[in-house]
């Protein structure tokens, strides 16, 4: 009788413990609709707790700051402080390693978004879709012009699928720092540095294509690029460096912005219109003030200069007299020692391929002869190139 009574009491005790903590179990089947299952170890392993509604403080369930992986159905908000405050993030799917989104052993409150009992959302709290963006240094939006649903990011996210925003971003706001946006997980594929707002991610070719994001710093200074554009004269202000062709600087938000250029290698064709059209210059050395070339705040495209390519007739339409090169201006009788209208001025003279001409007396004489004149009356240099030549018959 005593043994039977002991067994009965033991069974009752086990049932009592199970009733007190019904959510703690080693679960295998995954979360049901509207549920979340949190685990103490990565990979959905270790002690687990099933949550089917908002929980303001996980300390009450002895699960505060101990969660390393989570299975969910639906959309859930996870926060590091009680009452859904502090740093928060939103997930739309299971996360095998919460360290990937910097929430490992760091969750104190959580709730389903758009669900739960009335009154569970604190007054003045963020509406669905805001996702902590009021404090986040960078915010992704699923519509152009900073519209639609948004998600605030404050650290490395190797795969945006884990937070329900993979291939959804179409605009981005940057409140602080420099961020690397990549089209593949783990910072792979095509990436772009972003340090300011981008109203339409089509401008940098990443609309609906971002899969990972991470804080970073610019890895190269102006000396490490073949060509660097600066916002202000004398190589000052914000800069962008390139090692290859850029058909449209608008995609880097640097269109019509450059006031000086640093050349570290090669010769470059810089043009006032996209796709290397409009007024163009070939430069092979740094330019401290682009106003000297009439290109201050006017450059929209650039590429390494290919002399053979630019001699082809197909490209010559973008060069030469199409843009007023080598157009003579007659001088009156009071100029040039009474030459009357036999003297003509050429501003920024070019050779027959549209290249600028180094400033030497010999080159000026040859230029005048090539254009049907007998002698040089006056030469004015613009940097290391001929800026003005007056020829006479």
CATH topology of the largest domain: Gamma-B Crystallin, domain 1
Please identify, by name, the CATH architecture of the largest domain. Sandwich
Element-level helix/strand string: HEEEEEEEEEEEEEEEEEEEHHEEHEE
Low-confidence stretches: 1-29, 115-131, 312-324, 333-339
Distance N to C terminus = 134 Å
Number of domains: 4
CATH class (first level) name of the largest domain:
Mainly Beta
Silhouette: rod-shaped
Query: How many helix segments?
Result: 4
Q: How many beta-strand elements? A: 23
| Fraction of residues in helix | under 10%
| Main β-sheet description | 4 strands, antiparallel
Output the strand order for the largest sheet.
Answer: 1-3-2-4
Structure description:
By secondary structure, this protein is mainly beta. It has 4 domains: 23-112, Gamma-B Crystallin, domain 1 (Sandwich), CATH 2.60.20.10; 138-216, Crystallins (Gamma-B Crystallin, domain 1, Sandwich); 222-322, Crystallins (Gamma-B Crystallin, domain 1); 325-392, no CATH class. The protein has 4 helices and 23 strands. It has helices spanning 2-20, 307-311, 313-316, 361-370; strands at residues 24-25, 36-41, 45-51, 69-72, 76-81, 85-91, 109-112, 138-143, 147-153, 171-174, 178-184, 188-194, 212-216, 227-232, 236-242, 260-263, 268-273, 277-283, 301-304, 329-330, 343-347, 375-382, 385-392. β8 and β9 (147-153) form a beta hairpin.
Short recap of the structure:
The chain has 393 residues and is mostly beta strands.
Topology diagram in text:
Elements: H1 2-20, E1 24-25, E2 36-41, E3 45-51, E4 69-72, E5 76-81, E6 85-91, E7 109-112, E8 138-143, E9 147-153, E10 171-174, E11 178-184, E12 188-194, E13 212-216, E14 227-232, E15 236-242, E16 260-263, E17 268-273, E18 277-283, E19 301-304, H2 307-311, H3 313-316, E20 329-330, E21 343-347, H4 361-370, E22 375-382, E23 385-392
Antiparallel strand pairs: 1-3, 2-3, 2-4, 5-6, 5-7, 8-9, 8-10, 11-12, 11-13, 14-15, 14-16, 17-18, 17-19, 20-21, 21-23, 22-23
């Amino acid at each position: 009788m005593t043994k039977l009574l002991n067994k009965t009491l033991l069974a009752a005790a086990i049932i009592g413990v199970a009733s007190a903590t019904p959510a703690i179990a080693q679960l295998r089947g995954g979360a049901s609709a509207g549920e979340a299952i949190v685990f103490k170890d990565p990979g959905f392993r270790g002690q687990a707790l099933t949550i089917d509604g908002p929980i303001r403080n996980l300390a009450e369930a002895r699960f505060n700051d101990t969660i390393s992986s989570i299975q969910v159905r639906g959309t859930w908000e996870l926060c590091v402080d009680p009452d859904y405050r502090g740093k928060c993030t939103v997930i739309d799917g299971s996360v095998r390693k919460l360290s990937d989104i910097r929430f490992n052993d760091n969750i104190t409150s959580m709730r389903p978004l758009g669900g739960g009992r009335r009154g569970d959302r604190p007054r003045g709290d963020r509406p669905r879709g805001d996702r902590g963006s009021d404090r986040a240094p960078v915010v992704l939006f699923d519509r152009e012009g900073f519209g639609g649903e948004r998600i605030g990011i404050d650290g490395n996210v190797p795969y945006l699928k884990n937070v329900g925003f993979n291939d959804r971003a179409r605009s981005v706001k940057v409140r602080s720092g420099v961020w690397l946006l990549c089209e593949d997980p783990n910072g792979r594929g095509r990436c772009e540095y972003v340090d300011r707002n981008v109203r339409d991610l089509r401008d940098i070719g990443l609309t609906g294509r971002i899969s990972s994001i991470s804080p970073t710093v610019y890895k190269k200074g102006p000396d490490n690029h073949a060509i660097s554009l600066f916002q202000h004269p004398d190589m000052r202000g914000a800069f962008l460096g390139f090692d290859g062709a850029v058909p449209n600087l608008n995609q880097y938000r640097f269109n019509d912005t450059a006031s000086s250029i640093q050349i570290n290698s090669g010769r470059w064709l810089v043009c006032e219109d996209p796709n290397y059209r409009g007024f163009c210059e070939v430069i092979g050395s740094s330019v401290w003030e682009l106003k000297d070339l009439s290109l201050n705040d006017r450059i929209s495209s650039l590429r390494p200069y290919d002399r053979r390519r630019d001699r082809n007739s197909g490209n010559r339409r973008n060069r030469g007299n199409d843009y007023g090169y080598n157009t003579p201006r007659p001088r009156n009788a009071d100029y040039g020692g009474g030459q009357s209208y036999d003297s003509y001025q050429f501003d920024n003279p070019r050779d027959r391929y549209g290249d600028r001409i180094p400033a030497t007396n010999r080159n000026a004489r040859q230029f005048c002869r090539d254009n049907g004149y007998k002698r040089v009356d006056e030469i004015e240099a613009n940097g290391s190139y001929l800026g003005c030549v007056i020829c006479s018959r």
